[in-house]
Amino acid sequence: MHPELKRFIPLVKTIAHMFGKNCEVALHDFNNPQHSIVEIENGQVTGRKIGDPITDFALSLWRKDGYREKKEDTIVNYRTKTKDGKILKSSTFFIRDDQKKMVGCMCINYDLTEYLMFNKIIEEFCNSVDLNKENSKEEVETFTSDVGEVLEDIIRKAIDKIGKPVSVMQKSDKLMVAKMVDEKGGFLIKGAINHLASEISVSRYTIYNYLDELKIKKKKETT
Asked: Is 138 exposed, middle or buried (0-12, 13-18, 19+ CB in 10 A)?
């Protein structure tokens, strides 16, 4: 575990014990995204345990070095949904070292499912905000014990956004898929190059070429 993260372990336990069984608190170490959870309380909320991987949402924010243009380190009260249908109110706090490098994060996921059955009574407590005010959709975050599922979900969402079968995709379409996977932090996961190559029917060397092309384009846009 990164030394900077150890001091947050008592906080993880305190928050979880204060709010009870519906409140999952997880501490992630970004040194190993495949097994990033180094401490977790009430993991039954999302079905995760120590050694499980980072979520796709946290991975994308790590890739972007923060949230939104101001690179904010704290995101509070956004709504997520687990694969088995639980509605969660979530907050994430990113942790940096002395050099301002993002080394991990603490995530709080509160299961609102029971409370939403009595929404009128506890409406104020359950109030949450959208991450993107221009898009009222719930943020779907992938909670899983297999980092391969995180990568598959990132790739699937990227392919779905193109809106056409892989068999009829042009180079520009596949390049866009690679761009979206990169922006979501997918290439931080081991084996992502080969997996994406297989999914969009190109060679691994083509993926490397796509990434080089994207870097050149991004460099031109910033100069």
From this structure: middle
Those residues with Cβ within 8 angstroms of residue 151's Cβ, 6 or more apart along the chain or in another chain = 186, 189, 191, 192, 195
* pLDDT confidence of residue 136: 46
Mean pLDDT of the chain: 87
Q: Could you tell me the CA-to-CA distances from 169 to 61, 106, 117, 207 in Å, in that order?
A: 28, 39, 44, 15
Cα 13 versus chain centre, distance: 22
3-145 CATH, one of 3.30.450.20, 3.20.20.10, 3.40.50.11690, 3.40.50.970: 3.30.450.20
User: In sequence order, which residues have a C-beta less than 8 Å from that of residue 90 and are 6 or more positions away?
Assistant: 77, 78, 79, 80, 107, 108, 109, 110, 141
In the chain, domain spans: 3-145, 150-221
pLDDT at 124: 61
- Report the predicted TM-score, pTM, of the whole model to 2 decimal places: 0.67
> What contacts 195, CB < 8 A, 6 or more positions away?
148, 151, 152, 155
Look at residue 20 and give its three-state secondary structure: coil
